[in-house]
Design goal:
294 residues, alpha/beta, 11 helices
């Protein structure tokens, strides 16, 4: 059955024009003439029988249909590009592993160790992307992921890597204002969006009442929380291993060495259908050894 798909030339011209909101800028990126890009978009609109752009005073404005279509086309083109890069690697490598990682965990713990993995397994090409929350493996070009939380990701194999201990950290100026743990309740508490109860749990464990434990500016990534603490915006509750560098440089201080073990853990996660994939098995063995201090 014939697929109802426009030409990729038209889709690329549309996607590029939608990103720049300009045929001229799209033409510069694609090394085409402005007229050629405009014609490709016109052909696409005729094919769809839908107007994608309004042309107002020489400005491009996406129609409602154009906005929806642009978002989907952009995602699909990126997936095609990733699939193309991946298949091109088969000319020289035995296997590819597409791994989704937690951004700060990746930067602070995983990536500094990856040279050892590459040396041990030169036949595996490891591609990294970032994901903060669990996702559907069926809709992403991802073979495995690093997850922090509970072992509750459906239809997957979850391999526990390690736990963590969290401690309060802040700038030197804020640390000097703290006489006791109770004083923390009077400072700005920096929050992480995926760990909304972290401060509440920590105060409960150390036996301090803090009515505003859930209050404070929220950040999507732990790296943002770290930088906010370095900048003196407030006190952060951080896994110890993620702030070792900043503490060593004197950028952050631990006002009270009251480490509390997190109730959650780090996991290597992959769909059950990938359980026998050679690259995953190699990575699983290696990262377990690293997590156990090997």
């Amino acid at each position: 059955m014939r697929r109802f798909i426009p030409s990729t030339s038209c889709l690329i011209a549309f996607d590029t024009s939608a990103r720049h909101m300009s045929f001229t800028k799209a033409a510069n990126e694609l090394h085409m003439t402005q007229g050629a890009v405009s014609r490709q978009v016109a052909i696409l609109e005729e094919y769809l029988n839908v107007k994608l752009f309004e042309r107002i005073n020489r400005r491009l404005i996406l129609t409602e249909a154009g906005r929806d279509y642009a978002a989907q086309v952009s995602t699909i083109l990126k997936q095609i590009e990733m699939a193309t890069f991946q298949v091109m690697t088969y000319n020289s490598l035995a296997s590819v592993l597409n791994l989704a990682i937690l951004p700060t965990f990746g930067v602070k713990w995983l990536i500094p160790r990856l040279a050892k993995f590459a040396a041990a397994h030169p036949d595996v090409l490891l591609n990294l992307s970032t994901e903060v929350l669990p996702f559907d493996f069926n809709t992403r070009q991802v073979d495995a992921a690093i997850h922090f939380g509970e072992p509750d990701w459906p239809d997957t194999v979850m391999v526990r890597l390690m736990g963590e201990e969290v401690v309060p950290v802040c700038s030197k100026a804020l640390a000097e204002r703290l006489g006791s743990v109770d004083d923390l309740a009077n400072l700005t508490l920096l929050q992480h969006t995926t760990r909304p109860q972290a401060w509440q749990d920590w105060f409960r464990h150390v036996g301090v009442d803090c009515p505003n434990a859930l209050s404070g500016p929220r950040f999507e990534q732990l790296a943002m929380v770290i930088q906010a603490a370095v900048a003196g915006m407030g006190v952060a509750l951080m896994p110890k291993f993620m702030v070792e560098t900043e503490i060593g440089l004197g950028q952050l201080h631990v006002p009270f060495p009251l480490a509390v073990k997190s109730p959650q853990s780090y996991y290597l996660v992959y769909p059950e259908k990938n359980a026998g994939k050679a690259a995953i098995l190699k990575f699983r063995e290696w990262i377990l050894n690293e997590a156990q201090g090997g």
